[in-house]
Every structure is written in C-alpha cells, then in structure tokens.
Amino acid sequence: MRILYFDICAIPLFLMILSVCYTRKMTEGTANRLFISLVFLSLVSTLADLGMEIPDNMAPLSETGRVLCCVSTYAYLLLRNATNAILLLFLLALTRTTFLIRRAWAKLLFCLPYLVIVILLAQNPFTHNAFTITAQVGYSRGPLMMAFYGIALLYGIVGFVYCIYCRRYLPANKWAALLGTYLLVHIAVLIQFFHPELLMEMFFTAAGEMMIMLSVMRPEERMDSEVGMLSWASYQSDLRNILRSGEHVQIIVIRISNCREIRNYLGDHEYNLFLSQIARGIRAIRWKYQRRIELYLERPGTVYLIADENEADTLNVGERLLSEAGDPIRRYTDMGVRVEPQVCLIRCPEDIQNAEDIISLGHTFQKLNGRNRAVCRADEIVRSQTFAIEAHIEEILDRAIRDRRVEMYYQPIYDVRAHRFHSAEALARIIDPEYGFISPSVFIPAAEALGYIIAIGDAVLDQVFRFISEHDLNALGLGCIEINLSVAQCMERGLPDKIRALQQKYGVEASQVNFEITETTFATISEVVLENVNELLGMGYSFALDDYGIGYSSIQRVNHLPLKLIKIDKSMLDEVSTDNGRKILEHTVRMMQSIGKQLVTEGAETHDQVRILEEMGSEYIQGFYFSRPLPADDFLRFIRERNGCR
Ligand code: C2E
Ligand code: MG
Ligand code: MG
C-alpha cells in the first residue's frame, strides 16, 4: 500500500509558490520563467503521480482505473524527467551562462538524455520493457525502468557539479540554498528507490522549490513587482555574471531624463502604470523582432535591456525602441506628458569590460554624450578622458583625501564702486596623479553622492582658514574669503564646533569668512541646518546665497533668510543679450537692493557684460573677465598688483 499523504501535501505548496510568482509579477526574465515552468511541471507531475498511485492502491483494477493509471504513468515519467532538465536550465539562466549551450551540438548533448526518455516511452506500449500496468497486479517495473532513474541521476549529478562550480556566480546563501535543494530532492529519490511505498519525492521537491523561491529568487529582491520588470539589484548581479562568464551581450540603457517631473505630475500610482506601459511597449518589440531581451528598472526612470548579441545593427534597435515603444504610452502623451528618453547602446564586453564602468556609464552617458543625440553608442564615449574620470571618481576622491590632494584656487571678486578687488571665492580642485585636473563640477556632486563631501569640505575649511591666517587680508585690500558649503556639511551637527576649533587654531576672525550656501540647503527638512546657520551667525559669520536664478529661486525665501549677500548665477547674465533677459536681470538687481541685500553677479566674461552690470548698479562682479580662479600664489600676486599693495 503506497502512502499518498506526501504527494497530497506537496500540491498546496506548489500552488502557493505559483501564486506568489504571479502576484509578484515574476513572469519577466528567463530565470523567472524557467522557475515558474519548473514549479508548474512539478505540480502536474505530482497530480500524475497521484493519478497512477490511487488506482494502483486499489488493484485489481477496473478498465477505467487501468487506463487512468497508464496515462498518468506516461505523463509522470515524461514531465518528471523534464523538470530535471529544466532545473539545470534554470541554473544556467540564473548564472547567465545559458550561452554555454547555444551551439547546436551543445543543445543536442543537453537534450539527448531526455530524448532517450521520450524514445523509451514511445516504444513501451509495444515492448512493455519500461513498465506494465495490468488489471490484476497494477503497476510493475520493466527491465528498462532503471534507465529512467539513470537519466534522472545524470541530470542530477551534472546539475549538482555545475552548482558547485557556480559558487563564484552566486552569493553564498543562494548557492547554499540551491545545493541544499539538489541534495534534498536526490536523498528523497534514494529513499523512495529503496522504499517505493513512501512517495516522498514530490513533497521534497516542493520543499526544495519553496527554498529556492525564498532564498534564491527572493521576489522582493529580483523584481520590481509594481511594474513587472526585473529589479536594479538583478541588473547588477546579472551584469557581473555576464562579465565573469564572458558572454557577449548588448545593453541598451533608456534613461527618461525628465522622469522626476513625470512622477510628480502623475503621482506614484499612475507613474507605476506609466512604467508598466513602457515595459509593455518594449516587450511588444521583443516579440516582433524575436529577440531575447531581459528588462530591468532602476528607479526612478532608467530601463536597462540586456539582449543577446546576434543582432546586426544595434543602433537600429535603439531607434526602434524610441519610435515604436511609444505606442503604449500614447495615453500619457495625449494627456500632455512629454517623455524625454535618451538611449545608450553598450556592446559588452567589446566596449567596456568592467561591471562598475558599465553601471557608471548608465548613470552618466547623458552628460558625456558630446553630440547630445537621443541615441548614442558607448564606444564613442568610453574613450574620452571625462568618462575615465567619471568612472573612477570614487578612487580619485579616496586618493585626494588620503594624500591631501584637494587644492584651493581663489577667484577675485571686483567691487564696482571702489574699482578694486574686495573679496575672493575659494574654489576646490583636485589634481590627481593619474587623471590630472578634476573640476569641482565633477567631483563635488560625486563626493555628495558617495559620502565624501564632509571629508572634502573639512580639507577646504582647513586650507582656507590657514590661507587667511598666513596672509594679511586687510593689507591686500580684501574684506573676506567666500567658502562654499554643501548641504551635507550644513546638516552636520558638529559644524559650528569644527569652525570654532579652526578659528582658534589659526586665529582667524569670523568677519573674514563668508559662507556660500544654495537654496537647496534650506529646502532640506533638517532642523540642524537652521541651528547651525543661526549658531554661526551668532559667532559673527555671514552667509551668501549662491546660484540665485537657477531652477526655482524664491524671492520669499531670500527675504526670510539671514543672508547678507546674493550671488546671481551666470545663467542669468548669459541671457542679458536678449531684451527680456536684460529686463529680468535689471529688475532682480533693483529688487535685491531694495530689500537690503548686497549683490555679486557671477560669470562676467566680456567687457560688454561688465559695462551693463555697472550700469545696472550691481555692486560686485565675479568672472573670467577679471580673472579665472587662481592658485594661491598667483592669486596673491594678482591682488597685490591690481589692488596696488605691496
Ligand atoms: P559656484 O560656487 O557657483 O562657483 C562659481 C563657478 O563659476 C566656478 O566654477 C567658477 O570657476 C565659475 N566661473 C566664475 N566666473 C566664470 C566665468 O566668467 N565664466 C565661466 N564659464 N565660469 C565662471 P568651478 O570652480 O568649476 O566650481 C563649480 C562649482 O563647484 C561651484 O559653483 C561650487 O558649487 C562647487 N564648488 C567648488 N569648490 C567647492 C568647495 O570647496 N566646496 C563645495 N561645497 N562646493 C564647491
Ligand atoms: Mg560659490
Ligand atoms: Mg555660483
């Protein structure tokens, strides 16, 4: 008498796994689809197993029972053996090594054992050498039954060995879970081989698949379930596996440059639907052009496609994506949503051989895309020095802090009424031994994003305070030096203490320093920012608002903040050649002065601009027309000469 309880208990487990897969939209991606097929086939195999065992328990069999038992046995042997092959395929897809069986002979080798099974089953009705089912005895094994076990064992052993080999492709916990599953299922098969009455195999298979789902697939990690695309974490791990295995692929990065605005306009829920529609559009192309493409999403709005390499013209794919994937989002474009996608095509490993560089390129290609086209190719970008710097910025920052390579340059600020230079802005530079001069517009945002800004800011503060202590600003005719403070620095609890310590160490007066901050500093919700600013004001320091006129500058904010000085951004001055631009600048200058703020206009490059600013009554001007930012010694020489001091 066979014990059927194990099989019966396995069924709800399989159903649970399948329902989780569907509700978490784990239908995207080859590995996910193979896993679902594996669970589905295991479920049907279990039903077939029951279909052959239930009548068998009731021998002698009725004719219906015999037919049911017979059909179920064929189904079981056919499907159960297929699951062994699919588990192996799943392993290949998970480690992105499916290309190992891309050649025709490799495919044949892979399928051959399964073909033997199909042949054995096809000839069994005539020879009965695999199994027989009779009304009196029920099911009985034939001499070739061992071949089924042998082939199952063959897939099992190959899978197990490959699983051990795959250690470098998978994190330890996932690897252990896969190995555990293999062991679990094969121990169950062994027990069942010696004790056929214990039908444990399918229950253990269900337990193993549950283990794979919980620790290997981890839907919350592999999928962005809200939109049905693979997650950013999956992209990174798949990318690393592709590079490890040496597979040739094409990566298409689609970055929606105005995604934040779209999200703000649509709201979170509708924005997810919008992304799902983009995914739909791309999937339609995948079907139409028969390409194997995996879809990944990095929030808020970058889609990565990894496609196999055998497409002649990648550029066409990119352009097709832009023109054809638009259809499903027509509803949104009709609503007036302007979608601005930018595409970068990367051939891997031909263009770049390193996962970090590919990830970095995905983030920066818009900036590096010299000709600013909608579709650009990685090979045109990666040769540039700018890309090398962007890609290695963390290493550069690390080295700059460790080896004290942050250098301060000073840009003089001209006092229109006094006809002399009244102050200077301290601007940081990194001179890297490998990559040379690095602009702060590159390394400051990177330092902010990567958590280096406090260390860089500390180096800046120390150098500028020391500079002030070493030179007599009064004698040079300079009132103060301006230091840029980042948001993160302003949010640091110990900032006033740090500055107090520097003040004492170098004997600098608070009036000799003016801190520049931007409006975003006050847009943060941190209470600490206001506490810090107020404490520094109490200590006698003053503040300037930098970059006024960029983005959404608010005159209300300017009015309410304790600011001595407003620095008008270069972009406003650049507009001065137009009639309206000139009027806007003129009114801004007048308005700021009427609410008692001093004004510096940044970015004056020509004599005409300086003349216009003088006419408008801007008190201070900073720009290349007078001087570029200079190294300390050159700056001192410049000031001594131009301010007429020794
Ligand atoms: P910012 O504070 O607005 O500095 C003014 C920028 O405009 C400087 O660029 C300066 O070289 C440039 N500039 C001045 N006059 C002209 C001109 O006539 N024409 C043109 N084309 N540019 C002009 P720089 O030195 O590249 O710095 C860029 C930004 O990096 C700075 O903008 C500031 O936001 C940030 N930064 C620089 N040094 C530091 C620092 O020590 N700490 C922090 N937190 N940020 C810094
Ligand atoms: Mg500044
Ligand atoms: Mg500025």
What is the element layout, followed by pairings?
Elements: H1 5-23, H2 30-56, H3 63-94, H4 104-127, E1 131-134, E2 138-141, H5 145-165, H6 172-194, H7 201-217, H8 219-222, E3 223-224, E4 229-230, H9 232-245, E5 249-256, H10 259-266, H11 268-288, E6 293-298, E7 302-308, H12 314-324, H13 330-334, E8 341-348, H14 355-368, E9 375-377, H15 378-381, H16 385-391, H17 393-402, E10 406-415, E11 420-432, E12 436-438, H18 440-450, H19 453-470, H20 473-476, E13 480-484, H21 487-490, H22 495-506, E14 513-517, H23 519-523, H24 527-538, E15 542-548, H25 555-560, E16 565-568, H26 570-574, H27 579-594, E17 598-602, H28 607-616, E18 620-622, E19 630-631, H29 632-642
This protein binds ligand C2E and magnesium ion (2 copies).
